[in-house]
Each structure stands twice: as structure tokens, then as C-alpha cells.
Input
Amino acid sequence: MSDIETMTVEYTNADGVKEYRYQTKPFVGMQLPDFIGYHEGVQFDIDDFGAFLRVMLDKPTKTELDAYGKDIKEIRLAYVENAMWFTFRIGGLGWIDAPYTPHLSKNLHIIDSPVRFAELCRKITVVVIDTSTGTVGQVKEIALDDAFADTIFKLVYAIKAQPFDKKAYDDLLASVENTYSPSEIAEQSKDLSCIVAG
Output
């Protein structure tokens, strides 16, 4: 059990009182029972502990787990009507896409501290979850280059400053996903790219 790491973050709440949040750092074999029976898909989120790409797969194969652990080649980012749209090139699996808005990040408090928030934007942790058991099957941390990380940082603040309409956001997601494949979204995002080292 000594390999299990707990992450801690301190922030000041709306009343000016210091609060602390704790979270176990994701690891292979970790049990996440809330994800049992979850539909297959991809979620991108940023919280006080970092940026996470959660990939939910029903009984992922060894090939899929290896691809997410060793074969993420490139990340691209597009800005579409007050939403960020990430695409990830996963070796032989092709492109996957993950939209994001900070308005739906429930546990992002340290956005009020730009220096600390900037650090969160420096890497993305990919977590592959087997939805049949709720077990984490793969974890991969990806360091981002400075230009890509800075763009994430600036876009989050720009989007957060705008009013948010959940229905309009849902309609945008449906429209883009019904019109474009992940590879087509990636092609339109090629000007903002991060090549993954290693």
C-alpha cells in the first residue's frame, strides 16, 4: 500500500476560509465503483489536482490499454464557440475527441490562483477505466509544451469569463459530433498541436 499517493490542495473558499481537499493519485488497479456500468466514452476535466482525460471502456483489451499507456502521439486543441475541443492521436486507434468547458468543472477552486492554476495546465493525466469492474487499467501522465499549456490556461480564463448556457453547450456538442468525425476535428485543429515525447 506504500505506493498509493494522496494529493492535497489548499484553497480559500468564498467566505475567505482556508479549506483542504484530498484525493488519491490514480493508479493501475484502483477501484472506482462510480464508473461501473458507465457508458463507453471520453471525458476531459480540470480540477484542483490537475487535467484529466478519463477513457471509459467496457472490458478494454491489452492492445487498447497498451495504446493509451505507450502510444499517445499528439494532442490538438480547437476553440469552438466558448468550448475547448481536445483531440488525441492514439497510435493505431486513431483520433479521439473530448470537448471541455470550465463551467462544468465542479472541483476547480484554485482557478482563483493563476500561478497555481498555470501549473495544472502543464500536464494531462490519462486514466483508462474498465466500466465492467470500475478498475483503472492504465494511467499515463503527458507533459505539455509551454505554448500548448499556456493556450489551455488562457482559454480556460477566457471561457470562464463568459456567461454559460448549458443547453447551448449541449446543442453545440451534438452539432459538432453529428457533423464531424474525431479525425476531421483534429484536421481543423492542426495549428495548435502538442507532439507527445517518448
Summary: Strands lie at 6-12, 18-24, 41-47, 50-57, 72-80, 83-90, 94-100, 123-130, 135-143, 193-195. The first helix runs from residue 62 to 70. The first strand starts at residue 6 and ends at 12. The radius of gyration is 17 Å.
